Amino acid sequence: MASSTSFLCFLSLLSLLLPSISPSPTSITIPLSQFNTNPSSDLYQNLTHLASISLARAHHLKNPQKAPVFTTSVSSHSYGGYSISLSFGSPPQTIPFIVDTASNFVWFPCTTRYICKNCSVSDSNPPIIPSFIPKLSSSVKILGCLNPKCGWIHNNTDSQSRCPDCEPNSRNCTQICPPYLILYGLGSTGGIALVETLNFPGRKVQDFLVGCSLFSSHQPAGIAGFGRGLSSLPTQLGVKKFSYCLLSHKFDDTKKISSLVLDSESDSGKKTRDLSYTPLIKNPVVPGKHAFSVYYYVGLRQITVGGHKVKIPYKYLSPDSVGNGGTIIDSGTTFTYLSSNVFELVIKSFTGQMKNYKRAEDVEFQTGLRPCFNFSSQNSVAFPAVRFHFKGGAEMALPLENYFSVVGGVDAMCLTVVTDNVVEGASGGGGGPAIILGNYQMQNFYVEYDLRNERLGFRPQSCK
Ligand SMILES: *[C@@H]1O[C@H](CO)[C@@H](O)[C@H](O)[C@H]1NC(C)=O
Ligand SMILES: *[C@@H]1O[C@H](CO)[C@@H](O)[C@H](O)[C@H]1NC(C)=O
Ligand SMILES: *[C@@H]1O[C@H](CO)[C@@H](O)[C@H](O)[C@H]1NC(C)=O
Ligand SMILES: *[C@@H]1O[C@H](CO)[C@@H](O)[C@H](O)[C@H]1NC(C)=O
Ligand SMILES: *[C@@H]1O[C@H](CO)[C@@H](O)[C@H](O)[C@H]1NC(C)=O
To answer: Full-prediction pTM beyond 0.70?
Structure first.
């Protein structure tokens, strides 16, 4: 008798702890589209803007800021990314979210009076930002401070330190989870945490932790964190594998859509047909750099340009004990970032092999990209092929449009990879991943994050 009572207690406790997920097919497919609120008709501005946000994001990912009180790892950008729509609440409200594999938290703009500073180029023509309206939902709840999910946001697992207004050992304390403030490389957002129903066709996930942002700067849409942490979307849903195919960036506004697939099937070690796999590398554990534990590290072992090996010192290819070096893959970065030591080696290989073409220094100056070449007097141009070689033998041969882009009409092209002038190892500089693989380089690739088997799979595929 006693044992059956405690078993029942155990069951009801479990049902409190686990998100209640109704029986459902194991996979969910969500349309994935490009997110670009900042259409600029100026050719230079498009590339320049993408180059500068890619760099700002790289700085942020390499040097995650510690917010004074509230911490969570974050992303810095919005433009040049990809978005999905998610439906929260009862009845469901559907709003777009940027897909970000380098952060954990999921949040949406959450009031009709959402304040978004610097969310468009022209303040005279501010974008209409879709927001979630809590009072229209019957299933919304404000997250309580004692709820363990509050500890996911506020990194002190100890409820006594995050809930000072609660009596010790109180079970009925009504203090809400303290507001979050997320600092970005560029901008910030803040608000209060909710638990709300997340609706998919045929599946409802109750008590999903989501942030209700009241203000932001530089964040014209919510963000769905897909990183390796408790509060990320894949973790909260118990997803074992997710995959996407990234539509080509043509800087155009045509509403093309591909898919993001969330797969919860639990027992499959099977490889997906035609995918090349590379293991996900163990994250560096660095005190104070919690964000590094969120990223997806891969073992990039070599870059070849025109078949020639770029001699990259190993220290850049593998994270050391303080988290310097290594490669991460990030859906939220546009142009791939290479730390300057690596970049210069790659550039040297390019310019050496392309010395018969005229450098377009004016274009380099205007876009911040290099090298750029002026091909106006050329009938045909031979570009060196770029390949990434990963641990385990997987190779990624980049289509030309994934690393060279036309600017200035049709006669100049630039390498779409960014760097900064931070020299690794110099005091105060460096730190963090040396290479951030951005979404521009993954256009028309199908990419699978196989979390169960700790590997990343990819294949070239037309995503349209
Ligand atoms: C820049 O972006 C705008 C809007 O997205 C587009 O109409 C224009 O063609 C782009 N320019 C170039 C050269 O791609
Ligand atoms: C924000 O926008 C204002 C005016 O539009 C501008 O002066 C300011 O420099 C911008 N801030 C940032 C950080 O871009
Ligand atoms: C919470 O519980 C304590 C005793 O366990 C009781 O004294 C107190 O009144 C309760 N507070 C509320 C707000 O219900
Ligand atoms: C979070 O807490 C863990 C364990 O207490 C600690 O090791 C880590 O450094 C903390 N992270 C941050 C960002 O404070
Ligand atoms: C390319 O070079 C030609 C002359 O050789 C010049 O007229 C043109 O403006 C240059 N284009 C760019 C984008 O620099």
So the answer is: yes
